[in-house]
Amino acid sequence: MVEVAEISSADLVLEVGPGKGALTEKLLPRARQVFAVEKDERLVFYLTLKFKEEFKQNKLVIIGADILKFDPASIGLQAGGYKIVANIPYYITGEFLRHFLSEVIQPSQMVLMVQKEVAERILGNNPKATSKLGLKESILSISIKAYGEPKYLETVNAELFTPRPKVDSAVLMIDKISRDFFTDISEERFFSVVKRGFAHKRKLLVNNFEILTNAGKKVLADCGVAPNARAENVTLRQWKCLAKNL
Prior knowledge:
CATH architecture of the largest domain: 3-Layer(aba) Sandwich
Strand content: 15-25%
CATH superfamily of the largest domain: Vaccinia Virus protein VP39
Helix content: 25-40%
């Protein structure tokens, strides 16, 4: 994870849920500064002792906080001026991604350990997909692709964890994070259209949008969306076209 994030001496890194510092230990020699956000007060104390020298030198800043309520601006981080490298708690994955992609100032890049199934959903290449149109997108995958470029880097088998979980994990990178996609359309408008399109996943898109007129059908055609497409078959660029023209 540290290698693929290409951490250098110029980088400010935000680590989430450092636990006992296994990843922190690898980040510290490479990064300019590491900000570790840990909710458990006992682990905050443990990390302060374990990395006593780095803590004294301000190379490591330990913050006792809930990451879902944490604003990077509170510690002086700026949009695009830091990277997130983290083994996040899996149950907060969706909320975490939404928080750091759309609610607070964004990092330039994230390298995360997530559930394998979630990583596959984010890329829209779920192997269980049965669509003849070849895609299996979701609100999650479209939302993340609107802000950055997700890449599936590596599978991490369950047997490598102690205690062993029931699911495999994966290392996921979200690169080139920005709001550039929204220069000509508001985030609110875009996501309202996407959510409406996914309201009933089994329905055809024309039915979810109640497209009955020839003008509405022409918009679909102009955006390259097949008449029999469902929401999961529509690409990011097609969603943008629909949001701007429907």
